[in-house]
Amino acid sequence: MANTKPTLQPDKWIDNYADYLFNYAVVRVNDSDLAKDLVQDTFIAALKSAKNFQGKSTERTWLVSILKRKVIDYYRKINSKKGQAEVRMNFYVDGEQEGNWLEERVPQSWDNASEKAVENEELKDQLEACIDNLPEKYAMVFRMKTIQEFETEEICKELDITASNLWVIIHRARTQLRKCMEDNWFNS
Amino acid sequence: MFKFLFITCDEATMICDKSQYNEASLFEKIQLNIHFLRCGICRLYTKQNNKMSDLFRMKATDCQKEKPCLSDIDKAALKQKLENSKA
Lengths: 188, 87
What we know:
- Chain A has helices spanning 10-29, 32-48, 59-80, 113-116, 121-133, 136-147, 152-159, 163-186.
- By secondary structure, chain A is an all-alpha fold.
- Chain A is elongated and about 65 Å long.
- In chain B, helix 1 crosses helix 2 and helix 1 runs parallel beside helix 3 (40-65).
- By secondary structure, chain B is mainly α.
- Chain B has one domain (3-86).
- Chain B: This is Glycine dehydrogenase.
């Protein structure tokens, strides 16, 4: 009798799923070498636990669920990294002035913003450089939300963070990016 | 009384960031607008934030056009690694 339960065919994994998994990883970590590593780790982990595959989901769904764990592990790793460039504060964190703009971080007017905002390669490069300057975890969450346009709920679920956590990260990333673009583009 | 309507610049700009994604609540928007009445800096931040969102959207359109995939060389290397790990 034909077995209708999906079975694993590891020999075909790379041809069938490598691109899909790579794409899945790269839109989340925005680094193709890292994404390659995650895909490789996923396949190796899958081989090791192939006997646990119960055929309840398709092969692809099963592989994606392993990759998801790898992405979370990566996020936790960069989240706990000590000594990395911390995002610059923009507001007083305590005292009477708490929550007010730090004097040196107050937004300055962008006199020639309209002429400077014209789409060109240089502008895109500068923007990319500013995003890359963010601490890794801020860059990752910011990109997922703003560049890849994921839903808030989805990011929270995938990275196991709360919505308020996400908004603090987005807020810090955006205030930092505003300042970076002001210094390096609009008022430079 | 009504103290809950008054927020700091940090909180105001956070709401402003949220509303760039259309995810600020009505109450938050009210708080933000009350803050605007007495804070020119945050009004300026908001104006610039809109401009930043335009730039991000431009970048998003660019990025989403790309369809990243693995080269044949990468795939061959991956196959090799997988073979080795089986052994």
